[in-house]
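Standup notes
- DV: blocked on the single-chain target, sequence here:
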Amino acid sequence: MTTRMPVEDRRAQLVEAALAVAASEGIGAATVRRVAEEAGVALGVVHYCFADKDELFAALATRIVDELARAGSEGLAFDGATDLAGALHAAVAALWDTIEVTRGAQLLTYEITTHALRDPDLHAVARRQYEVSHAAAASLLALAADASGAAWVRPLDDVAGEALAFVDGVTLRWLVDGDSAAARARLDGFAAYLATQAKAGRRRARQRAAS
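- DV (later): unblocked, structure below
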């Protein structure tokens, strides 16, 4: 007998079940029936919580994107960086650490994108993926510049878009070849390039100490 719980809690449980199925078996396997089996609930429970598979799919995509964006922004420490280049190297190192331990979720984001783009009703899901990722990249770049006292010489949105496209490509190639060392080297090189797109400045801590 299915345990009763608030609808929002049940939806969250079903999204977690969908994530477990999709990450291990692929997005195509995340059918309503398979998700119900994974969650240990009756098929009717899924239909009660979600109008159809597309609504469940959209909720799954939102869950993954939000979690990856949150994970990528946690644990960033710029205290040891003396300039923007150092801050960016610290940022890409932390970012790659997150990517490496979430291979299944990374692969799933690409599956979600292509699946959503094939269905006009789901295009908004793909757009949200990139809107959230772009905002996270812009926030990280702004923090790095602020920590080092630097200023971007190009619009932050442009730099963030370029960074997101590069990280996207590096991640996809890593999913194919599994060469983590090469991926880290590419990201380090890109971090060095990004540092040339800003005016250097002194760290805020040093400015305060001098005042």
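- Follow-up: Residues 205-211 have pLDDT under 50 and may be disordered.
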